[in-house]
């Protein structure tokens, strides 16, 4: 098992290890301007009623969390748009369009901006490259400040996009008076615990993942399950596993399992489960186990990888805000730290299988063709 440290032989290992300090840096820059509303105001963008976040791949997954955050903090109608399918999307003139792209050069994203009939002055770029084509074309630019990412698989830029985008959502809701400054302060305080949570996730993953890799080494297909925001992280985990190991991986909302994917589960099928605080995944886990599936559970009691302090109440403590009448809640970033064991699982399994983790076959860091 390769240690995750500054002297790792691959960029991906180093970039995973950098995630806590990346978030620390982002928050020290952004946090003072969140609960004042200034982070949003300084962008100089017009008032909006709805939000659409667009992107591809990992940036799209980050976009889904950001879109959720606008809904959770301010009941803003929101959607995440697959950039390559944006031609079919109808937006009204009061929609803020957030184009999320690490490179800022992704052709599908740039084309989407041509195709979407957006209102004037309403495109915000969320990018890791302030000199990119996207940054030049947008009406406002927010730097996700992850620093250079060399590994083709996005890791630290995903975490940076989520944290930066959630700070933006919170700041915008303060600026429009939808959320009180004191409430925003409480959420920012919780966000400041993110680096520690990521550090903890790296430590426990280093301890637990090697044995798991041995047990799933020969598996040809994987399922990733979650509920709520956990579904998006399941999607990101499945994407990492596919691109690094060349093994099939599908993600589903856990409730969908019995509507079809359960037929895939047989003796030894690895099923990665992102636990939720409400315990509603236990029935799904039981269904998988009774078919002989190999459950890799992240975050709950008795988890294979007890990332979130080892018990689900930790999710409940993690900056939840009321989502309105139904009494549902949504953690600021959802179970963000759950992505760490999935990144490490994908990397370690890829190394065990002899893959090049920095340059997976058939893929490029920046996809400049449609
Ligand atoms: C992520 O691991 C992938 N390499 C890929 O999905 C990537 O996120 C996608 O191509 C979007 O790139 P961008 O963020 O530079 O637009």
TrEMBL record:
Keyword Repeat among UniProt keywords: yes
Which processes are annotated in GO (biological process)? fructose 6-phosphate metabolic process; protein N-linked glycosylation; UDP-N-acetylglucosamine metabolic process
**Taking every annotated instance into account, which residue ranges of this chain make up the domain SIS?**
39-178, 212-360
Q: Which UniProt keywords apply?
A: Aminotransferase, Glutamine amidotransferase, Repeat, Transferase
- Reaction(s) catalyzed by this protein? D-fructose 6-phosphate + L-glutamine = D-glucosamine 6-phosphate + L-glutamate
Give the enzyme's main class according to its UniProt record, as a single word: transferase
Q: What is its EC number?
A: 2.6.1.16
Q: Name one GO cellular component term.
A: cytosol
What is an example of a GO molecular function annotated in this UniProt entry? Answer: carbohydrate derivative binding
Please report the name of this protein according to its UniProt entry.
Glutamine--fructose-6-phosphate aminotransferase [isomerizing]
Q: Kindly list the organism's lineage.
A: Bacteria, Bacillati, Actinomycetota, Actinomycetes, Micrococcales
């Amino acid at each position: 098992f390769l240690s995750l440290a500054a002297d790792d032989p691959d960029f991906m290992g180093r970039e995973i290890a950098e995630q806590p300090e990346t978030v620390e840096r982002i928050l020290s820059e952004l946090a003072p301007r969140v609960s004042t509303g200034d982070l949003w105001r300084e962008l100089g963008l017009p008032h909006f009623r709805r939000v659409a976040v667009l992107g591809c791949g990992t940036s799209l997954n980050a976009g889904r969390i950001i879109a959720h955050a606008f809904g959770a903090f301010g009941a803003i109608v929101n959607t995440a748009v697959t950039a390559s399918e944006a031609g079919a999307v109808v937006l009204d003139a009061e929609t803020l369009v957030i184009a999320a792209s690490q490179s800022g050069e992704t052709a599908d994203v740039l084309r989407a901006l041509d195709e979407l009939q957006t209102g004037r002055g309403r495109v915000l770029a969320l990018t890791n490259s302030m000199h990119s084509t996207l940054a030049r074309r947008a009406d406002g630019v927010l730097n996700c400040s992850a620093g250079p990412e060399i590994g083709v698989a996005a890791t630290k830029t995903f975490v940076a996009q989520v944290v930066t985008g959630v700070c933006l959502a919170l700041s915008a809701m303060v600026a429009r008076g939808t959320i009180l400054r004191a409430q925003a302060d409480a959420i920012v305080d919780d966000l400041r615990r993110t680096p520690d949570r990521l550090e903890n996730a790296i430590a426990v993953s280093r301890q637990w993942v090697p044995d798991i890799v041995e047990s799933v080494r020969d598996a040809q297909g994987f399922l990733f399950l979650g509920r709520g925001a956990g579904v998006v992280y399941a999607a990101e985990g499945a994407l990492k596993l596919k691109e690094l190991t060349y093994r099939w991986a599908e993600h589903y909302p856990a409730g969908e399992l019995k509507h079809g994917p359960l037929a895939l589960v047989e003796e030894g099928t690895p099923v990665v489960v992102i636990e939720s605080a409400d315990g509603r995944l236990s029935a799904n886990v039981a269904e998988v186990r009774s078919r002989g599936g190999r459950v890799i559970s992240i975050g709950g009691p008795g988890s294979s990888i007890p990332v979130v302090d080892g018990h689900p109440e930790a999710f409940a403590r993690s900056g939840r805000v009321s989502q309105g009448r139904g009494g549902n809640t949504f953690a600021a970033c959802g179970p963000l730290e759950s992505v760490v064991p999935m990144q490490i699982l994908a990397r370690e399994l890829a190394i065990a299988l002899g893959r090049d983790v920095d340059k997976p076959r058939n893929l490029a860091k920046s996809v400049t063709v449609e």
